[in-house]
Design goal:
two-stranded parallel sheet, alpha/beta, 8 strands, TIM Barrel, globular, single chain, binds zinc ion, six-stranded parallel β-sheet
């Protein structure tokens, strides 16, 4: 039996029911296959904030996260998660609630964002609604003061909307600097995640949590390999190199 290293954090974006316009989005029907796979393999889903108490987590734990908060996540992800008794965390850019993901360029149905009513409903159903800053900037280009405003404003908007404490944050575009890490803590967040791939337990700083990105073409078997290797690139080409490397390591350690 394969022994899984866990917890592991996954990053999804849109879940449209037609062909995804973005490499980071995945068709709703394929997302449903991911959920089926996770359920069949006995994975438990927890919220990102549950990582604050890692000792209480089940043995095979996956944290499903969604960045940005696309409107198509409601029917493509939230409802199927509910049907399967699973949980996920959404990172919301609060200026864009009910609007469009302006950083993607031309608006389309796939750039539409969840409304505040949807977010309230999802929160009430047990999902975590967390912060992705207010305007989705490249934080590494902002001053300390500007970053602080982005973190505090988004937190206040969501706390006001949901009447709950918001303690999780995801840096937009995965871009951040040393100030971001310090300010995330100073503005009251308990944890923050990046887009750096890798194992959860390989990063000691709770404000630099690693996540594995899911791309539009990722089948359930690609997901399986991502859960096994905690890497964004699990192509067969790379896997072959990995196994060849292991065989080589074995050979050379014999001499
Ligand atoms: Zn984003």
């Amino acid at each position: 039996m394969t022994r899984y290293r866990s917890p592991i954090v996954l990053m999804y974006h849109g879940t449209p029911d037609s062909k995804p316009e973005s490499h980071y989005s995945i068709r709703a029907s394929l997302f449903a296959e991911h959920l089926r796979y996770l359920r069949q393999e006995g994975w438990s889903t927890v919220l990102f904030k549950d990582l604050q108490n890692p000792e209480s987590l089940p043995e095979k734990t996956v944290v499903i996260t969604f960045d940005d908060g696309y409107e198509d996540n409601y029917s493509g992800a939230f409802l199927p998660l509910m049907t399967n008794g699973m949980k996920a965390t959404w990172f919301i850019a609060t200026d864009c609630i009910g609007g469009h993901a302006h950083w993607l360029g031309k608006p389309s149905t796939q750039t539409r964002m969840l409304s505040s009513e949807r977010l309230s409903e999802m929160h009430a159903a047990g999902m975590e609604i967390a912060s992705h800053t207010s305007s989705h900037p490249d934080l590494s280009m902002l001053s300390k003061e500007q970053q602080q405003i982005e973190f505090s404003k988004a937190k206040a908007v969501l706390e006001n909307l949901l009447s709950t404490q918001v303690t999780s944050l995801a840096y937009p575009f995965g871009k951040f600097n040393a100030d971001s890490v310090t300010l995330a803590e100073q503005t009251g967040y308990r944890m923050a995640c990046t887009t750096r791939p890798g194992w959860y337990d390989s990063e000691p700083n709770p404000y630099m949590v690693r996540r594995i990105a899911i791309f539009s073409g990722d089948s359930a078997s690609t997901l399986a390999r991502k859960l096994n290797f905690a890497d964004n690139d699990v192509s067969w080409k790379k896997m072959t190199r990995y196994y060849a490397g292991r065989v080589w390591d074995k050979l050379i350690t014999q001499f």
